[in-house]
Amino acid sequence: MWRQPKAVWAVAFASVVAFMGIGLVDPILKPIADNLNATPSQVSLLFTSYMAVMGVAMLVTGVVSSRIGPKRTLLLGLVIIIAGAGLAGMSDTVMGIVGWRALWGLGNALFIATALATIVNSARGSVAQAIILYEAALGLGIAVGPLVGGVLGGISWRGPFFGVSVLMAIALVVTTLLLPETPRPQRMTTLADPFRALRHRGLLGVAVTALLYNFGFFTLLTFTPFPLDMNAHEIGLIFFGWGLCLAFTSVVVAPRLQHRFGTVRVLLVNLLCFSALLMVMAVGTDDKTILATCVVIAGLFIGINNTLITETVMKAAPVERGVASAAYSFMRFGGAAVAPWLAGVLGERVSVHLPFWVGAGAVLLGAGVLALTARHLSGIDTSGGQERSDSGNKQENAVEEITEQATAVTVGSDS
Protein backbone atom coordinates (compact mmCIF):
# COMPACT_ATOMS: atom_id res chain seq x y z
CA MET A 1 0.00 0.00 0.00
CA TRP A 2 2.84 2.39 0.83
CA ARG A 3 4.76 1.85 -2.45
CA GLN A 4 2.99 4.45 -4.53
CA PRO A 5 3.89 6.71 -7.48
CA LYS A 6 5.30 10.16 -6.68
CA ALA A 7 2.10 11.72 -7.96
CA VAL A 8 0.07 9.96 -5.28
CA TRP A 9 2.42 11.12 -2.53
CA ALA A 10 2.31 14.68 -3.87
CA VAL A 11 -1.48 14.77 -3.65
CA ALA A 12 -1.41 13.01 -0.27
CA PHE A 13 0.98 15.65 1.12
CA ALA A 14 -1.23 18.45 -0.15
CA SER A 15 -4.21 16.65 1.40
CA VAL A 16 -2.48 16.61 4.79
CA VAL A 17 -2.07 20.38 4.61
CA ALA A 18 -5.65 20.86 3.37
CA PHE A 19 -7.09 18.87 6.26
CA MET A 20 -4.90 20.74 8.71
CA GLY A 21 -7.11 23.71 7.89
CA ILE A 22 -10.08 22.05 9.60
CA GLY A 23 -8.52 21.61 13.04
CA LEU A 24 -6.03 24.46 12.80
CA VAL A 25 -8.68 27.05 13.62
CA ASP A 26 -10.21 25.12 16.52
CA PRO A 27 -7.78 26.23 19.27
CA ILE A 28 -8.20 29.91 18.35
CA LEU A 29 -12.01 30.08 18.34
CA LYS A 30 -12.13 31.41 21.89
CA PRO A 31 -9.14 33.78 21.44
CA ILE A 32 -10.83 35.23 18.35
CA ALA A 33 -14.04 35.70 20.34
CA ASP A 34 -12.13 37.40 23.17
CA ASN A 35 -10.02 39.66 20.93
CA LEU A 36 -12.82 40.71 18.59
CA ASN A 37 -15.62 40.85 21.20
CA ALA A 38 -17.64 38.15 19.46
CA THR A 39 -20.09 35.56 20.76
CA PRO A 40 -19.65 31.78 20.33
CA SER A 41 -22.38 31.67 17.66
CA GLN A 42 -20.65 34.46 15.70
CA VAL A 43 -17.26 32.76 15.87
CA SER A 44 -18.81 29.43 14.91
CA LEU A 45 -19.74 31.01 11.58
CA LEU A 46 -16.06 30.53 10.65
CA PHE A 47 -16.93 26.85 10.30
CA THR A 48 -20.44 27.38 8.93
CA SER A 49 -19.38 29.60 6.02
CA TYR A 50 -16.42 27.33 5.29
CA MET A 51 -18.48 24.13 5.27
CA ALA A 52 -21.55 25.59 3.55
CA VAL A 53 -19.57 26.94 0.60
CA MET A 54 -17.52 23.75 0.46
CA GLY A 55 -20.66 21.61 0.34
CA VAL A 56 -22.33 23.60 -2.44
CA ALA A 57 -19.08 23.92 -4.38
CA MET A 58 -18.71 20.13 -4.33
CA LEU A 59 -21.46 20.08 -6.94
CA VAL A 60 -19.28 21.92 -9.44
CA THR A 61 -15.97 20.16 -8.80
CA GLY A 62 -16.72 17.48 -11.38
CA VAL A 63 -17.82 20.06 -13.93
CA VAL A 64 -14.61 22.05 -13.48
CA SER A 65 -12.33 19.00 -13.37
CA SER A 66 -13.83 17.45 -16.50
CA ARG A 67 -13.17 20.66 -18.43
CA ILE A 68 -9.74 21.82 -17.24
CA GLY A 69 -8.38 18.49 -15.98
CA PRO A 70 -7.76 17.14 -12.44
CA LYS A 71 -4.28 18.66 -12.01
CA ARG A 72 -5.36 22.19 -12.90
CA THR A 73 -8.39 21.80 -10.63
CA LEU A 74 -6.14 20.77 -7.73
CA LEU A 75 -3.80 23.71 -8.33
CA LEU A 76 -6.70 26.16 -8.65
CA GLY A 77 -8.05 24.95 -5.32
CA LEU A 78 -4.66 25.39 -3.64
CA VAL A 79 -4.28 28.95 -4.96
CA ILE A 80 -7.74 29.89 -3.65
CA ILE A 81 -6.96 28.39 -0.23
CA ILE A 82 -3.71 30.38 -0.03
CA ALA A 83 -5.62 33.61 -0.79
CA GLY A 84 -8.56 32.86 1.53
CA ALA A 85 -6.41 31.91 4.52
CA GLY A 86 -4.04 34.85 4.09
CA LEU A 87 -6.83 37.40 3.75
CA ALA A 88 -8.63 35.92 6.80
CA GLY A 89 -5.45 36.47 8.81
CA MET A 90 -5.39 40.13 7.80
CA SER A 91 -9.03 40.77 8.76
CA ASP A 92 -9.99 42.86 11.80
CA THR A 93 -13.63 41.75 12.15
CA VAL A 94 -15.31 38.41 12.74
CA MET A 95 -17.53 38.80 9.69
CA GLY A 96 -14.49 39.60 7.57
CA ILE A 97 -12.88 36.34 8.68
CA VAL A 98 -16.16 34.52 8.03
CA GLY A 99 -16.22 35.85 4.47
CA TRP A 100 -12.65 34.85 3.69
CA ARG A 101 -13.24 31.44 5.27
CA ALA A 102 -16.02 31.00 2.70
CA LEU A 103 -13.46 31.62 -0.07
CA TRP A 104 -11.18 29.14 1.67
CA GLY A 105 -14.01 26.60 1.58
CA LEU A 106 -14.37 27.05 -2.18
CA GLY A 107 -10.70 26.23 -2.64
CA ASN A 108 -10.93 23.23 -0.35
CA ALA A 109 -13.90 21.89 -2.31
CA LEU A 110 -12.03 22.04 -5.60
CA PHE A 111 -9.04 20.36 -4.00
CA ILE A 112 -10.55 17.69 -1.73
CA ALA A 113 -13.04 16.08 -4.11
CA THR A 114 -10.48 16.00 -6.91
CA ALA A 115 -7.73 14.74 -4.58
CA LEU A 116 -9.79 11.72 -3.47
CA ALA A 117 -10.61 10.73 -7.04
CA THR A 118 -6.98 11.32 -8.13
CA ILE A 119 -5.54 9.14 -5.38
CA VAL A 120 -8.06 6.35 -5.98
CA ASN A 121 -7.44 6.38 -9.74
CA SER A 122 -3.62 6.74 -9.56
CA ALA A 123 -2.68 4.56 -6.58
CA ARG A 124 -1.35 1.02 -6.85
CA GLY A 125 -3.39 -1.72 -5.22
CA SER A 126 -7.08 -1.91 -4.39
CA VAL A 127 -9.58 0.89 -3.92
CA ALA A 128 -9.68 0.09 -0.20
CA GLN A 129 -5.91 0.60 0.10
CA ALA A 130 -6.06 3.89 -1.79
CA ILE A 131 -8.83 5.14 0.49
CA ILE A 132 -6.85 4.12 3.58
CA LEU A 133 -3.95 6.19 2.23
CA TYR A 134 -6.31 9.14 1.71
CA GLU A 135 -7.78 8.73 5.20
CA ALA A 136 -4.24 8.51 6.62
CA ALA A 137 -3.56 11.92 5.07
CA LEU A 138 -6.85 13.17 6.48
CA GLY A 139 -6.07 11.81 9.94
CA LEU A 140 -2.53 13.18 9.99
CA GLY A 141 -3.74 16.58 8.85
CA ILE A 142 -6.50 16.70 11.43
CA ALA A 143 -4.11 15.50 14.15
CA VAL A 144 -1.36 17.99 13.42
CA GLY A 145 -3.74 20.89 12.67
CA PRO A 146 -4.83 21.63 16.27
CA LEU A 147 -1.26 21.28 17.55
CA VAL A 148 0.09 23.74 14.97
CA GLY A 149 -2.93 25.97 15.55
CA GLY A 150 -2.29 25.94 19.29
CA VAL A 151 1.40 26.82 18.88
CA LEU A 152 0.80 29.60 16.36
CA GLY A 153 -2.36 30.71 18.14
CA GLY A 154 -0.36 31.16 21.34
CA ILE A 155 1.63 33.84 19.51
CA SER A 156 -1.34 35.47 17.80
CA TRP A 157 -4.78 34.36 16.69
CA ARG A 158 -3.73 35.44 13.18
CA GLY A 159 -0.82 32.99 13.15
CA PRO A 160 -2.72 29.84 12.09
CA PHE A 161 -4.24 31.62 9.08
CA PHE A 162 -0.86 32.77 7.82
CA GLY A 163 0.55 29.32 8.63
CA VAL A 164 -1.97 27.68 6.29
CA SER A 165 -1.04 30.06 3.47
CA VAL A 166 2.64 29.19 3.80
CA LEU A 167 2.04 25.43 3.99
CA MET A 168 -0.35 25.53 1.05
CA ALA A 169 2.22 27.44 -0.98
CA ILE A 170 4.64 24.57 -0.34
CA ALA A 171 1.95 22.05 -1.31
CA LEU A 172 1.31 24.04 -4.50
CA VAL A 173 4.97 23.78 -5.52
CA VAL A 174 5.16 20.06 -4.68
CA THR A 175 1.96 19.25 -6.57
CA THR A 176 3.05 21.31 -9.59
CA LEU A 177 6.38 19.52 -9.82
CA LEU A 178 5.44 15.92 -8.96
CA LEU A 179 1.93 15.45 -10.32
CA PRO A 180 2.01 14.82 -14.09
CA GLU A 181 -0.57 16.41 -16.35
CA THR A 182 -3.66 14.27 -16.00
CA PRO A 183 -5.95 13.65 -18.97
CA ARG A 184 -9.45 15.05 -18.95
CA PRO A 185 -12.29 12.56 -18.57
CA GLN A 186 -13.81 11.33 -21.81
CA ARG A 187 -17.22 12.59 -20.74
CA MET A 188 -17.77 16.07 -19.33
CA THR A 189 -19.94 15.97 -16.24
CA THR A 190 -22.80 18.38 -15.55
CA LEU A 191 -24.29 20.00 -12.46
CA ALA A 192 -27.12 17.47 -12.58
CA ASP A 193 -24.84 14.41 -12.35
CA PRO A 194 -24.37 14.43 -8.53
CA PHE A 195 -28.15 14.67 -8.05
CA ARG A 196 -28.69 11.81 -10.49
CA ALA A 197 -26.15 9.80 -8.52
CA LEU A 198 -28.21 10.30 -5.35
CA ARG A 199 -31.07 8.40 -7.01
CA HIS A 200 -29.10 5.30 -6.14
CA ARG A 201 -30.59 4.36 -2.79
CA GLY A 202 -27.38 2.92 -1.41
CA LEU A 203 -25.47 6.14 -2.06
CA LEU A 204 -28.35 8.29 -0.81
CA GLY A 205 -28.58 6.30 2.42
CA VAL A 206 -24.84 6.62 3.08
CA ALA A 207 -24.91 10.33 2.19
CA VAL A 208 -27.78 11.09 4.60
CA THR A 209 -26.03 9.03 7.28
CA ALA A 210 -22.87 11.08 6.70
CA LEU A 211 -24.85 14.33 6.94
CA LEU A 212 -26.28 13.38 10.34
CA TYR A 213 -23.01 11.94 11.61
CA ASN A 214 -21.12 15.09 10.61
CA PHE A 215 -23.68 17.13 12.52
CA GLY A 216 -22.54 15.40 15.70
CA PHE A 217 -18.88 15.45 14.66
CA PHE A 218 -18.76 19.21 14.07
CA THR A 219 -20.82 19.96 17.16
CA LEU A 220 -18.02 18.33 19.14
CA LEU A 221 -15.28 19.99 17.10
CA THR A 222 -16.55 23.57 17.14
CA PHE A 223 -18.50 23.93 20.39
CA THR A 224 -16.36 22.00 22.89
CA PRO A 225 -13.61 24.70 23.12
CA PHE A 226 -16.11 27.08 24.76
CA PRO A 227 -17.16 24.98 27.78
CA LEU A 228 -13.54 23.77 28.11
CA ASP A 229 -12.51 27.45 28.48
CA MET A 230 -8.75 26.80 28.08
CA ASN A 231 -5.96 28.61 26.26
CA ALA A 232 -4.93 27.84 22.68
CA HIS A 233 -2.05 25.56 23.72
CA GLU A 234 -4.25 23.38 25.94
CA ILE A 235 -7.04 23.12 23.38
CA GLY A 236 -4.46 22.30 20.72
CA LEU A 237 -3.00 19.45 22.79
CA ILE A 238 -6.42 17.95 23.53
CA PHE A 239 -7.42 17.95 19.88
CA PHE A 240 -3.97 16.70 18.90
CA GLY A 241 -4.71 13.60 20.99
CA TRP A 242 -8.10 13.39 19.29
CA GLY A 243 -6.44 13.58 15.88
CA LEU A 244 -3.90 10.88 16.74
CA CYS A 245 -6.70 8.52 17.77
CA LEU A 246 -8.55 9.37 14.56
CA ALA A 247 -5.48 8.64 12.42
CA PHE A 248 -4.75 5.35 14.22
CA THR A 249 -8.23 3.87 13.90
CA SER A 250 -8.74 5.08 10.33
CA VAL A 251 -5.59 3.35 9.10
CA VAL A 252 -5.09 0.39 11.47
CA VAL A 253 -8.33 -0.49 13.23
CA ALA A 254 -11.03 0.20 10.62
CA PRO A 255 -9.75 -2.28 7.98
CA ARG A 256 -9.41 -5.06 10.55
CA LEU A 257 -12.88 -4.55 11.98
CA GLN A 258 -14.30 -4.34 8.47
CA HIS A 259 -12.63 -7.61 7.45
CA ARG A 260 -13.88 -9.43 10.52
CA PHE A 261 -17.42 -8.09 10.98
CA GLY A 262 -18.41 -6.39 7.71
CA THR A 263 -18.70 -2.71 6.78
CA VAL A 264 -22.32 -1.95 7.64
CA ARG A 265 -22.27 -3.80 10.96
CA VAL A 266 -19.13 -1.95 12.10
CA LEU A 267 -20.57 1.38 11.02
CA LEU A 268 -23.82 0.81 12.91
CA VAL A 269 -22.08 -0.14 16.17
CA ASN A 270 -19.61 2.70 15.73
CA LEU A 271 -22.35 5.30 15.24
CA LEU A 272 -24.20 4.06 18.32
CA CYS A 273 -21.01 4.31 20.39
CA PHE A 274 -20.32 7.83 19.14
CA SER A 275 -23.88 8.88 19.95
CA ALA A 276 -23.49 7.49 23.48
CA LEU A 277 -20.24 9.41 23.90
CA LEU A 278 -21.94 12.67 22.95
CA MET A 279 -24.61 11.92 25.56
CA VAL A 280 -21.86 11.54 28.18
CA MET A 281 -20.53 14.94 27.11
CA ALA A 282 -24.02 16.39 27.41
CA VAL A 283 -24.32 15.15 30.98
CA GLY A 284 -20.77 16.10 31.98
CA THR A 285 -20.45 19.43 30.15
CA ASP A 286 -19.49 21.25 33.36
CA ASP A 287 -16.58 18.89 34.05
CA LYS A 288 -13.52 19.79 31.94
CA THR A 289 -11.85 16.43 32.61
CA ILE A 290 -14.85 14.54 31.25
CA LEU A 291 -15.07 16.81 28.20
CA ALA A 292 -11.35 16.56 27.39
CA THR A 293 -11.33 12.77 27.82
CA CYS A 294 -14.41 12.34 25.64
CA VAL A 295 -12.90 14.51 22.89
CA VAL A 296 -9.84 12.25 22.69
CA ILE A 297 -11.92 9.06 22.78
CA ALA A 298 -14.22 10.45 20.07
CA GLY A 299 -11.26 10.35 17.68
CA LEU A 300 -11.36 6.54 17.83
CA PHE A 301 -14.95 6.40 16.56
CA ILE A 302 -14.56 9.22 14.04
CA GLY A 303 -11.52 7.56 12.43
CA ILE A 304 -13.38 4.29 11.89
CA ASN A 305 -16.44 6.06 10.56
CA ASN A 306 -14.56 8.30 8.12
CA THR A 307 -12.67 5.43 6.51
CA LEU A 308 -15.58 3.03 6.16
CA ILE A 309 -18.13 5.58 4.95
CA THR A 310 -15.73 6.96 2.33
CA GLU A 311 -14.92 3.46 1.09
CA THR A 312 -18.62 2.58 1.01
CA VAL A 313 -19.36 5.62 -1.18
CA MET A 314 -16.60 4.73 -3.62
CA LYS A 315 -17.90 1.17 -3.92
CA ALA A 316 -21.67 1.57 -3.64
CA ALA A 317 -22.52 4.02 -6.41
CA PRO A 318 -22.60 2.81 -10.05
CA VAL A 319 -21.25 6.16 -11.29
CA GLU A 320 -17.85 7.76 -11.85
CA ARG A 321 -15.90 8.13 -8.62
CA GLY A 322 -15.60 11.90 -9.00
CA VAL A 323 -19.37 12.24 -9.31
CA ALA A 324 -19.97 9.93 -6.33
CA SER A 325 -17.46 11.91 -4.26
CA ALA A 326 -19.12 15.22 -5.19
CA ALA A 327 -22.63 13.99 -4.33
CA TYR A 328 -21.54 12.47 -1.03
CA SER A 329 -19.43 15.49 -0.03
CA PHE A 330 -22.29 17.88 -0.81
CA MET A 331 -24.52 16.01 1.63
CA ARG A 332 -22.04 15.48 4.44
CA PHE A 333 -20.77 19.07 4.46
CA GLY A 334 -24.37 20.22 4.76
CA GLY A 335 -24.49 18.73 8.25
CA ALA A 336 -21.05 20.13 8.99
CA ALA A 337 -22.25 23.63 8.01
CA VAL A 338 -25.38 23.75 10.17
CA ALA A 339 -23.95 22.18 13.33
CA PRO A 340 -21.43 24.88 14.40
CA TRP A 341 -23.91 27.76 14.15
CA LEU A 342 -26.79 25.86 15.77
CA ALA A 343 -24.57 24.59 18.59
CA GLY A 344 -23.43 28.13 19.34
CA VAL A 345 -26.98 29.48 19.40
CA LEU A 346 -28.30 26.66 21.59
CA GLY A 347 -25.33 26.95 23.95
CA GLU A 348 -25.79 30.70 24.34
CA ARG A 349 -29.57 30.98 24.54
CA VAL A 350 -30.80 27.70 26.00
CA SER A 351 -28.23 25.51 27.75
CA VAL A 352 -24.57 24.64 27.42
CA HIS A 353 -25.59 20.97 27.58
CA LEU A 354 -28.12 21.09 24.74
CA PRO A 355 -25.72 21.16 21.73
CA PHE A 356 -24.30 17.77 22.74
CA TRP A 357 -27.78 16.29 23.19
CA VAL A 358 -28.79 17.49 19.73
CA GLY A 359 -25.56 16.14 18.26
CA ALA A 360 -26.12 12.76 19.92
CA GLY A 361 -29.67 12.64 18.53
CA ALA A 362 -28.46 13.42 15.01
CA VAL A 363 -25.85 10.63 15.08
CA LEU A 364 -28.42 8.19 16.47
CA LEU A 365 -30.79 9.12 13.64
CA GLY A 366 -27.93 8.56 11.19
CA ALA A 367 -27.53 5.02 12.50
CA GLY A 368 -31.25 4.47 11.92
CA VAL A 369 -31.02 5.69 8.32
CA LEU A 370 -28.08 3.37 7.65
CA ALA A 371 -29.95 0.41 9.13
CA LEU A 372 -32.97 1.10 6.91
CA THR A 373 -30.90 1.38 3.71
CA ALA A 374 -28.37 -1.36 4.49
CA ARG A 375 -29.99 -3.82 2.07
CA HIS A 376 -28.85 -1.61 -0.82
CA LEU A 377 -25.24 -2.04 0.32
CA SER A 378 -25.20 -5.81 0.55
CA GLY A 379 -22.46 -6.30 -2.08
CA ILE A 380 -19.82 -3.83 -0.88
CA ASP A 381 -17.84 -6.40 1.13
CA THR A 382 -17.53 -8.91 -1.71
CA SER A 383 -14.31 -9.00 -3.71
CA GLY A 384 -16.29 -8.31 -6.85
CA GLY A 385 -18.10 -5.33 -5.45
CA GLN A 386 -15.79 -2.75 -6.96
CA GLU A 387 -15.49 -4.71 -10.18
CA ARG A 388 -19.25 -4.57 -10.50
CA SER A 389 -19.17 -0.85 -9.82
CA ASP A 390 -16.48 -0.29 -12.48
CA SER A 391 -18.43 -2.50 -14.86
CA GLY A 392 -21.52 -0.46 -14.09
CA ASN A 393 -19.63 2.72 -14.96
CA LYS A 394 -18.55 1.27 -18.28
CA GLN A 395 -22.04 0.01 -19.03
CA GLU A 396 -23.54 3.38 -18.11
CA ASN A 397 -21.11 5.20 -20.40
CA ALA A 398 -21.82 2.73 -23.21
CA VAL A 399 -25.56 3.22 -22.82
CA GLU A 400 -25.09 7.00 -22.93
CA GLU A 401 -23.02 6.75 -26.12
CA ILE A 402 -25.61 4.49 -27.77
CA THR A 403 -28.38 6.87 -26.69
CA GLU A 404 -26.51 9.86 -28.13
CA GLN A 405 -25.95 8.01 -31.40
CA ALA A 406 -29.61 6.98 -31.58
CA THR A 407 -30.66 10.56 -30.88
CA ALA A 408 -28.40 11.84 -33.63
CA VAL A 409 -29.88 9.33 -36.10
CA THR A 410 -33.41 10.29 -35.06
CA VAL A 411 -32.71 14.00 -35.42
CA GLY A 412 -31.14 13.38 -38.82
CA SER A 413 -34.12 11.40 -40.08
CA ASP A 414 -36.56 14.01 -38.74
CA SER A 415 -34.75 16.77 -40.57
UniProtKB/TrEMBL annotation:
Record carries keyword Transmembrane helix: yes
The UniProt regions of compositional bias labelled Polar residues, in chain numbering, are 404-415
The way this protein sits in the membrane is described as:
Multi-pass membrane protein
Task: Give GO MF terms, alphabetically.
Answer: transmembrane transporter activity
Kindly provide the name given to this protein in its UniProt entry: MFS transporter
Which sequence ranges are marked TM in the entry? Answer: 7-25, 45-66, 73-90, 102-120, 132-155, 161-180, 201-223, 235-254, 266-284, 290-310, 322-342, 354-374
Cellular compartments per GO CC: plasma membrane
Query: Principal localization?
Result: membrane
> What SUPFAM superfamilies does this protein map onto?
MFS general substrate transporter
Annotated region (Disordered) at 381-415
Read off the InterPro entries from this record: MFS, MFS_dom, MFS_trans_sf, Tet-R_TetA/multi-R_MdtG-like, YfmO-like
Major facilitator superfamily (MFS) profile domain spans which residues?
A: 7-378
The protein's matches in CDD domains, at most eight in alphabetical order, are given as:
MFS_YfmO_like
> A Pfam family name for this chain?
MFS_1
Q: Sorted alphabetically, which keywords does the UniProt record give?
A: Membrane, Transmembrane, Transmembrane helix
As for subcellular location, the record says: Cell membrane
Superkingdom, taxonomy of origin: Bacteria
